[in-house]
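Input.
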Amino acid sequence: MRTGTPARVGQYTALLAYLVFLAFPFLWLVSTAFKPPRELGSLHPTWIPKDPTLANFRQAFDEQPLLHAALNSLLAALAAAVVAVLIATPMAYVVARRRTRLAKAVTGWVVVSQAFPFVLLIIPLFLVLKNLRLINSVPGLVLVYVVWALPFALWMLAGYVRAVPPELEEAAAVDGAGRVRTLVSVTAPLLAPGIVATALFAFITAWNEFFFALVLLKTPEKQTLPVVLTHFIGAEGVADLGPLAAAAFLATLPSLVVFALIQRRITGGMLTGAVKS
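Output.
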């Protein structure tokens, strides 16, 4: 115990420092969003605003169509998450249960595809969407988000499928359940935490995505929230810091709320109650 105490203290200290490092940008963003202009230009900035105000939020909504842009982002993110999960779930089951060369090749391709940069993909995707007449449209953007999220979603769900004991499916087959009944009644409920985690990943990825939306969406009424946030930066690169911080703070809230609502399902035991002693 004596030899383990210093190491444990060091681990907790490192964890606390890491949490502070992660929380610093968000806390500074919140502080900036509520500061009046004179405090934003102060040479001695403070963490807590001395005279907090909501003027930055009012100015942000007056200058840019934040609600409409947020609706576009929400529709694109929800649609991309649902479609990606619906496609990835059966694919992940086949890849995890069929130990063939094709399944291994698919898994390897999924890993390799994550290394492709955005710039390498944007031209082929732009040409495909142009032929489909989906340029400057939210459905076209959803299609791009699904293509981008699908490999990682497949990789995540395949790991969850492998964690489900095949003996459970074999026992259901012995009891007379068919393949479809086994998948729906036995396997699918055990995959619920994995499906939720994957959907959350796809949603947050699409909600925060900027590059594809900037290239594919041209008209202001189609633009998503990350693109609209850039409008608070002037032509000379000078940012309207107060309204920008207020709008950015509002843009981070949906991701935080979604994660807070479903984090128990993500961290819950996937096989809790599956095998009874």
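The chain has 13 helices and no strands.
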